[in-house]
Amino acid sequence: MPRSVNAVASRARRKKVLKATKGYFGRGKNVWTVAKNKYEKGLQYAYRDRKVKKREFRSLWIQRINAGARLHGVSYSQLMGLLKKADIELNRKVLADLAMNHPDAFKAVVEKVK
C-alpha cells in the first residue's frame, strides 16, 4: 500500500509561514527552512517583548515625572513619597501625561502635596 501524505495541509502550513515572513531580509522570506526558523524566533521575540514593553513604558513615565517634578524643586522620589503621604492615588501613567501635556495641572498636583 502506498504511503499517504497530506500534502494539502503541509503546503498550507508552509504558505502560512512564508506569507508571515514576507518582507524579511535575504533568504528569510523564501527559503522554507530559514523562513520557518526566523518565523519561530520572531514569535519568541514578540512574546518576550510584550512583557519588556511594560517595563520600558514604566521607565519612560518615571523619567517624565522626574523631569516635571524637578522644574518645581522636587525630585521624583520625594514627589512619590509626598503623594503617598497626602493619600493622592494617581498612577505613573497619568502623572507622566500631566507632566508632558498639562503642565499647569501637574504644577497644581505638586503644589498640593508640598
From TrEMBL:
Pfam families: Ribosomal_L20
InterPro entries (alphabetical): Ribosomal_bL20 (IPR005813), RIBOSOMAL_L20_CS (IPR049946), Ribosomal_protein_bL20_C (IPR035566)
The UniProt record lists the keyword Plastid: no
CDD domains, sorted: Ribosomal_L20
GO biological process annotation, one example: ribosomal large subunit assembly
GO cellular component: ribonucleoprotein complex; ribosome
UniProt KW keywords: Ribonucleoprotein, Ribosomal protein, RNA-binding, rRNA-binding
GO molecular function (one): rRNA binding
Family that this chain belongs to: Belongs to the bacterial ribosomal protein bL20 family.
Function: Binds directly to 23S ribosomal RNA and is necessary for the in vitro assembly process of the 50S ribosomal subunit. It is not involved in the protein synthesizing functions of that subunit.
Entry protein name: Large ribosomal subunit protein bL20
The species this protein was found in: Lunatimonas lonarensis
